[in-house]
Write a structure and sequence with these properties.
The protein has about 90 residues and is mainly alpha-helical. The chain has one domain. The chain contains 2 helices and 2 strands, in the order H-H-E-E.
Length: about 90
């Protein structure tokens, strides 16, 4: 299966946002009218940081090399890999 930069970015963004909300939510709720501003900022932080996911996927897919010798099954015309490769 091909790596999906935008899918990984979305997952990472959600994970970061939920982590920030869990860690700082109680502090934000203790100040009056701070929660909406804090929530907006957590989302901005999550968006900014999750861009790293796309960079990681692009680096791996564009510059990664797979070690030779991945086990295969079938004849030369219909070989299918049966184990994951290792990226150098």
């Amino acid at each position: 299966m091909a790596m999906d930069a935008s899918g990984l970015k979305a997952k990472l963004k959600e994970r970061i946002y939920n982590g920030l909300k869990a860690e700082f939510g109680s502090s934000a709720s203790s100040a009056s009218s701070y929660s909406p501003i804090a929530d907006e900022h957590w989302m901005k932080i999550a968006t900014a940081i999750s861009g790293i996911a796309a960079d990681i996927v692009l680096e791996i897919t564009q510059n990664g090399e797979v070690l030779a010798g991945i086990p295969t099954v079938g004849g030369p015309s219909s070989q299918v890999t049966v184990a994951p490769g290792k990226i150098l």
